[in-house]
Amino acid sequence: MFTLLLKRLATLIPTLLGVTLVAFLLIRLIPGDPIEIMVGERRLDPAAHAALMAQLGLDQPLPTQYLRYLGQLLKGDLGVSLVTREPVAAELRVLFPATLELAGAALLLALVLGLSLGLLAALKRGRWLDQLVMATATVGNSMPVFWWGLILIMFFSVGLQWTPVSGRIGIEYDVPFITGFMLIDSALADWRGTEPGAFGSALLHLVLPVVVLGTIPMAVIARMTRSAMLEVLREDYVRTARAKGLSPARVVLHHGLRNALIPVLTVLGLQVGSLLGGAVLTETIFSWPGIGKWLIDAIARRDYPVVQAGILVSALIFIVVNLVVDVLYGAVNPRLRGGSH
Question: How far apart are CA 207 and CA 182, in angstroms?
Fold first, then answer.
């Protein structure tokens, strides 16, 4: 297991280096002058334009700009936003917890419902419950995020007025920034009595974005869990466990589900990419102030440092989660601890 971990860590540096190069080049291929977008409607004469380009280092050759960018990264400097003129790292510290809270809650929802529904469908194979779960999973996996988000807003927010339309908390609440996670900060403010009802408001604001973002991963996990469980339940060791007189719950959960989690973990690692991609659309639809919406706004404004930082952080999250999944393989299945796979 330790050898496997070292191998995965060894691939981390070249992978991140490739991500920085791709992010650096892609944003510069988008048409548009970042200086003109930065100054807005003001008209600049060629001399002032050239002076700004030189000040920001955008007049240098691309290889020089890229090497300077790598040098900043080695120092832990993500650069300064071309638009706000604020350090990118400072903006990231404020916005990243919002995305992490949304994606974490969506992943938890997808895991709990996906595993439960997939397990039920496998145990009730061929019956109406199995057909209902699989039909729901197929529909959930087929729905575009933006369309699903708008449908839920029209029904629950506009029609029934059960949930808020956008944001992380009601405008009447002024919750101090402590951890950056609104559920935690609002719960602390509510508990102290400074902002009564803040936690309930934060929870309501989280419901629809979490459902929208978690639907596709939940559907994928449910289908994979059902397929893996059906295969595992036919194995000899499961029949042996039943012949020994073990309780059905122990047979299913200990001998069946534990071994079925191997392919589910693989899918789970891949779904992190879907969550990060879906977070961009979800945050835009619900005006959720996270790195997804921040990244979309930065692309529109040609804010190079922000786009580079957003892509780098998203890639790092994906890589780290898949590294954790590799480690979990050994925890779930002892046969894989030797690092042979």
Answer: 13
